[in-house]
Amino acid sequence: MLAVTSIIALSDRLRPHTFIYTDLHAYPLWWIPVSLLLTLVVHDTYFYWMHRILHHKKLFKATHLVHHQSTNPSPWTSYSFHFLEAIAEGAVIIVLVFSMPLHPLTIGLFAFSSFVINVYGHLGYEIMPKGFRKTFLFEIINTSTFHNLHHQKFRGNYGLYLRIWDRLMKTEHPDYVKHYDLLQEKRFGQ
């Protein structure tokens, strides 16, 4: 993703055709965090559908199987995938820079946030605090347990950041919440 971003952002021929702006004051400063949140929502939507497509039996063996060879993922798994999958994943930046105004700061924060969240999703260990289960955020965002279950079962839990698409499309693993609760009970007791 960073390579695609760099090519677009640094290319004098491509950048003028995008919504990348370099004057920090061309938009209100509040647009930086708002556009960052929007990039993450767009990326989550893009990733959900791309991920589902990669699970099609004809594409899975040719591309996504490389990533799924880790049934108990680790942070290294977060960027262990086939070259064609890397291209498909990196293409989200093309969608972003051609659809909304983005400052290079936002693009950098997006790349960093994506990296951190992707590593967290592939920890193979849950780090959320004890009280997280009782917050409204638990109903919205993915956890390491959420994605780990995807690696164990190879089906469902396709989302990257959010549970929204999996819930809407009824692809969330039916035992996710129970599985999460059991893991947290082992960590913290009752």
UniProtKB/TrEMBL annotation:
Taxonomic lineage from the root: Bacteria, Pseudomonadati, Bacteroidota, Sphingobacteriia, Sphingobacteriales
Localisation: Membrane
Source superkingdom: Bacteria
Keywords: Membrane, Transmembrane, Transmembrane helix
Protein name, entry field: Sterol desaturase family protein
Gene Ontology molecular functions: iron ion binding; oxidoreductase activity
Ranges for domain Fatty acid hydroxylase: 37-171
TM annotation in the entry: 29-49, 79-99, 105-125
Keyword Transmembrane helix: yes
InterPro entries, sorted: Fatty_acid_hydroxylase, Sterol_Desaturase_Related
One Pfam match: FA_hydroxylase
